[in-house]
Design brief:
By secondary structure, the chain is mainly α. The chain is built from five helices and no strands. This is DUF2231 domain-containing protein.
């Protein structure tokens, strides 16, 4: 049943979705750092909070899209397997750190209406992780031709 739903989406759905995820993650970190320096401006605290929600949702979408795109790949070369594993792991960890950042901002930043330093640090870690995942994804496509017909 589930595999028949995969055919509703193009094989390129992951690269179509993941670029938005990366951009939102970077934007969230950018708004967070501005919020740390502009402590009295509540707009950045609110923006950081809502961008964290959008980052989490887009990361989930990228993961689902990745599973769909992977379904279309007939053969994954042995040399690419470890990179694919690390790519998936880093994508999942991106989501974990975004959720942790959201929780930290909810509990520590919402009360004071300021960007939480803890939430910001966790968000920056997620930005590093999504960058590493993106680098691995690009290497698999451009260096190994994974998913290219």
């Amino acid at each position: 049943m589930l595999t028949s739903l995969y055919h509703l989406f193009p094989r390129t759905i992951h690269p179509m979705v993941v670029h938005f995820t990366i951009a939102v993650n970077f934007l969230t970190s950018f708004v967070g750092i501005i919020g740390l320096f502009r402590r009295n401006d509540k707009m950045f605290s609110r923006g950081f909070f809502y961008l964290l929600i959008l980052s989490i949702l887009s990361t989930i979408a990228a993961g689902v899209a990745g599973a769909i795109s992977e379904y279309y790949i007939a053969h994954i070369p042995g040399a690419v397997q470890p990179m694919l594993h690390d790519h998936k792991r880093d994508g999942e960890l991106t989501g974990v750190f975004l959720v942790l950042s959201f929780v930290a901002q909810f509990f520590f930043g919402k009360r004071t209406a300021k960007v939480s330093v803890i939430a910001f640090v966790l968000c920056v870690i997620s930005t590093v992780l999504v960058s590493v995942a993106g680098h691995l994804g690009g290497s698999m496509v451009y260096n190994s031709g994974l998913g290219v017909h």
